[in-house]
Amino acid sequence: MSIPNVGEVFALQKYTLDTLTLKLYSNNKTPAEGDTAADYTEISGGGYAAKALASGSWVITGGDPSVASYAAQDFNFTGVTNAPAVIYGYFVVDSNNLLRGSERFPAGVIPFTPSNGALIRITPKIQVS
Asked: What is the C-alpha to C-alpha distance for residues 122 and 129, in angstroms, rounded to an integer?
């Protein structure tokens, strides 16, 4: 069955109804189809805190592909002595801690080792085509 753009927009609207949570992970994991949230080790320390992505704040644009976009989210690191050792990417879970998606950072960036004052900026996007 072919899904028209209007159907893709509807799917994205439903997908983003929950408040989702954006998290960074520290294990050397490449995302795969069968993953669950338990496959990702959330980082801790260094001023890190997961980011809530409120349901009403997504901008959905129909097209090929249709895209739901969220404002850039900054992770600022402080306190070098207790900062996480490495970061490989990010993952998103829903309010039931079900994995909604994940992305590994590009090869030239990983593993990322934060230092005092380091910044990671992620602009969450979900594409449906």
From this structure: 22
